[in-house]
Design a protein that fits this description.
By secondary structure, the chain is of the alpha+beta class. Strands 1, 2, 16, 17, 18 and 19 form a six-stranded antiparallel beta sheet that branches. The radius of gyration is 32 Å and the shape is elongated. The protein starts with 14 loop residues before the first helix and ends with a strand.
């Protein structure tokens, strides 16, 4: 069909509404898109800074472990030992502050650490010594595990009678207390319950066993002058570690009556440390790594001469 030239003058400007609609739609789409891209760019920058911060904080932990490994023979006998320093070199252009000290709490469980100058004011007259033996399990419910038997000897070297209020053990993760396995000799039988008054952890967490009450101590039994008593208990646990003196990690301690403050710590083969490394960038953003570390002491003639083995017990990251 032929269109007459005169009819075209009535079509002028009709494309303008279409252009305006396209511009409005484009504006509506472009602004959110730019915000989306901008958010991802900022998120990527934050993630980059977080990763760099965690790498820097990890460098602080590794540096502290190296220093401990090299100097533990001297540091382990230093009263109130601790580390508190800034890591040289500013890795990733960040300031990395590192601290390390002996701890008395592992994964929420109160422990007694004999890693350095210990809080044991009674080892000259009161002692606890524990021997551990292990055999492969023949129990159908525990095949693949080992049966660990703990035999503890409590000795009063004093010339007078003492009262024992608390006996406690901390044992590595992967272990389970066997209910009813506690046995005792002599005066122990007068006050010891058949099972611990407190039993927490076990399995994936360290096992804490307490006979007595640490918050409100009361007499469990009497230990006569120059007398010794023995008690035993059993746990299920993993295959013994050939590098550990007893095949398993544990600590033991005994506390006399509450009028004579202090505790005698039996096992000096292990120390427990809390390490913290915080990396701070120029914007004040921080990344922190906190780790509990177990040290197996290298012992020669009763003295700590270095580190036989280190084991990281946990690894907590912020953010």
């Amino acid at each position: 069909m032929k269109i007459l030239p005169g009819s075209l003058k009535h079509q002028k400007g009709q494309i303008l509404p279409l252009l305006l609609i396209a511009m409005v739609v484009g504006a509506l789409l472009i602004v959110p898109s730019l915000q989306y891209v901008g958010t991802h760019v900022r998120t990527g920058q934050v993630l980059k800074e977080n990763v760099e911060g965690l790498y820097a904080a990890d460098a602080g932990i590794e540096d502290a472990l190296c220093r401990i490994q090299a100097n533990w023979a001297d540091w382990s006998t230093t009263p109130s030992w601790q580390l508190d320093y800034v890591l040289p070199g500013n890795p990733n252009q960040m300031t990395v502050e590192v601290t390390a000290n002996v701890t008395d709490t592992i994964l929420g469980n109160k422990i007694v650490s004999k890693g350095t100058n210990p809080p044991d004011q009674h080892t000259e007259w009161l002692s606890i010594n524990t021997a551990v033996s292990s055999t492969p399990s023949t129990d159908p419910d525990h095949l693949g595990q080992y049966l660990y038997t703990f035999v503890s000897t409590l000795t009063n070297l004093h010339t007078s009678t003492t009262h024992i209020d608390v006996v406690w053990f901390g044992i590595q993760a992967g272990t389970f207390f066997i209910d009813g396995s506690t046995q005792y000799t002599g005066d122990c039988a007068a006050g010891f319950p058949s099972d611990p008054d407190t039993k927490t952890g076990g399995g994936g967490n360290p096992l804490l066993l307490i006979w007595g009450d640490t918050d409100n101590p009361k007499q469990l039994f009497t230990l006569g002058a120059s007398a010794s008593e023995i008690f035993t208990f059993q746990v299920w646990g993993p295959t013994p570690d050939a590098e550990l003196p007893s095949g398993i990690t544990f600590y033991d301690a005994v506390m006399p009556n509450d009028t004579d403050k202090g505790a005698a710590i039996g096992n000096n083969q292990y120390a427990y440390l809390l390490l913290t490394s915080t990396a701070t960038n120029q914007n004040g953003q921080q990344a922190t790594i906190t780790s509990h570390v177990m040290i197996v002491n290298k012992i020669d003639s009763g003295n700590i001469t270095g580190v036989a083995k280190m084991k990281i017990l946990d690894w907590q990251v912020t953010p």
